[in-house]
Design brief:
- It is a single chain.
- It is built from two helices and no strands.
- It is an all-alpha fold.
- It has a domain of 30 residues.
- It starts with 14 loop residues before the first helix and ends in a 14-residue tail after the last helix.
Length: 61
Amino acid sequence: MAGSDKRKQSLYFPEDMLKEIQNEAARQDRSLSWIVQKAWKIARIEIRKFPSIEDLPDEPE
């Protein structure tokens, strides 16, 4: 994956979650973007274990 691709993207977080991310970014003297990117790299293996919408059983009508 290319490290130079810097496209803007808006992400929306619940207020309390955003505050936690901001606090952690300040604690580590890092940007919000850096914190979210590192969190994704750590969490993505676990997230890939979640079923996709196509894998969920159909709801009864």
